[in-house]
Amino acid sequence: MAPQTQQSATGSDYARMITVAVSAVIAVVGSFIGSGAAGGTPIQDAAGGALAADATVVAPGSGAFSIWSVIYAGLLAYAVWQFFPAQRTAERQRRLGYWIAASLILNAAWILSIQFDQLLLSIPIIIALLLVLIRCFLLARRYRGDGVIDAIITDGTIGLYLGWVTIATVANITAGLVAVGFDGFGLEPDVWGVIVIAVAGLIGIGLALRGEGRLAPTASLCWGIAWVAIARLTGDLMSTPTAMAAITAVVVIVIVTIVARLRATTEDPDRVPAATMV
């Protein structure tokens, strides 16, 4: 049988790749400004400090935000990876490209909304970002890659991005509700902290089951939830019930991920190689 020739990239392929690359640059520049490195106000201090570690009982500690450096590095790596000859016409990249670009633009828009003190506007933006990343996650699962490198760059980056934005969305919505004077229907903040963390935990369980035990979304979501626990046990806004709920959520999500991973690799090890289940 004659070897198959590689399909040539089309104009639409190059348009997609350039769009992703430009969007990645915009997002990284936005993050540079949002971090305060360019003289602007750091995200946690913008919008009246609504997203600071002590703003609400479900706000992660400031150390949690260091994961953005890993996520942005992955996004830049993806922007380069998609230009490789074998990736230019790959069906998964064709399916994912514009969705990833959309996530990058939404990311930059979210930073701008916070920097301009538009906390309420930031909520629909981050919800849209979360929905786009869920779409990316499902597409990456449906259109699988062909090696460990692609799994790390594509699946790993999408997974980390999704997991972190999940906990960030929860914290953002909570901050918005507090800002408009929501009193929690008379319930104590500790009670709401436990409820909100439980919701985040259920989302993590859903991602673990749907993703057949992929590691990246679990790692970043648990990272964020763990920093909620740290902030509630050591920060200015203490809440032991919320911290205990966060620790429990991390343990449960990890266990479900391991079980889902083992089940997937045991039932069909050829379809889902453990080495590529990032």
Task: Detail the topology: elements first, then pairings.
Elements: H1 11-34, H2 67-81, H3 85-88, H4 91-115, H5 119-142, H6 148-179, H7 189-210, H8 215-234, H9 240-267
How many helices in DSSP terms?
9
Number of β-strand runs: 0
Average of the residue pLDDT scores: 90
**Helical percentage:** 55-70%
- General shape: globular
Instruction: Outline the biggest β-sheet.
Output: none
Strand content: under 5%
> What oligomeric arrangement do these chains adopt?
single chain
Q: Radius of gyration, Cα only, in angstroms?
A: 20 Å
Order of helices and strands: HHHHHHHHH
From the N-terminal CA to the C-terminal CA, the straight-line distance is 34 Å
Sequence stretches where pLDDT stays below 50 over 5 or more residues:
none
Q: Which class best fits the helix and strand makeup? A: mainly alpha
What does this structure look like?
This protein is globular. Helix 4 (91-115) runs antiparallel to helix 5 (119-142), helix 5 (119-142) runs antiparallel to helix 6 and helix 6 (148-179) runs antiparallel to helix 7 (189-210). The chain has helices at residues 11-34, 67-81, 85-88, 91-115, 119-142, 148-179, 189-210, 215-234, 240-267. The mean pLDDT is 90. It has nine helices and no strands. It is an all-alpha fold.
Describe the structure concisely.
With 278 residues, the protein is mostly helical.
Question: Tags for this entry?
Answer:
mainly alpha, Tryptophan-rich sensory protein, 278 residues, 0% strand
